[in-house]
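User: quick one - fold this with S-adenosylmethionine bound?
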Amino acid sequence: MQYRALAAKYDTVTPRIEALRDEAHRLLRLSVGDTVIDAGCGTGKSLQFLSATVGASGRVVAIEPCREMIEIARERVRLAKLDNVTLIEGDVCALREQFALATVNAVLLMFTHDLLQSRASIATLLALAKPGARFALAGGKLFSGPLSLLNPWVEWRQKPYCTTFENYDAPWRKLFATDALAHTQVHPRYMGIAYIAHGERAP
Ligand SMILES: C[S@@+](CC[C@H](N)C(=O)[O-])C[C@H]1O[C@@H](n2cnc3c(N)ncnc32)[C@H](O)[C@@H]1O
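Assistant: Sure. Structure tokens for the protein plus S-adenosylmethionine:
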């Protein structure tokens, strides 16, 4: 799996996505006591923020199938003593067996293009989310318009960070097509080579 090779260098090669991460974090509108899922948490770069924001009475559930990635997340959680974080090694679909339906307040999907192309993963996250739960997404995408001439370069550049380019013109397409999310919005970033998207679980 390509993420095994990426894991050790992931934190040092991705500083440019931190502004998007901050924006996605804000869109989760977390409160103390909330339960939040960090789907495809990778090395756990969001965990400190999520843990501090939901507090001791809240819960962060971080799931990641790549062992090399989650080992780094595990060490991060251990060093920072993030006691309200539960790390699960596995595909997001595994959450269905472990958590009650409609109990989650927010879902973070930070640079998780593969996961967003899986209907089973999407169905799982929607099933776990409470009505009104916030979904915040950030990631890379193809240029549109005249800049789309540069898209072969975009795919080359983004290749380490996803295993498919299906729907890379609109990575949120499958999730937003379900009608299970209300108030959806998409905002291009970095001249359209990245995006922020968000919505709320419909009742
Ligand atoms: C580019 S990394 C992003 C890591 C992290 N979200 C971040 O904020 O930096 C994408 C991660 O999604 C994970 N992933 C891919 N498909 C998944 C799935 N079905 N369920 C859970 N995680 C998945 C990969 O293993 C990889 O570590």
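One thing worth noting: Residues 2-201 form a domain with the Rossmann fold fold (CATH 3.40.50.150).
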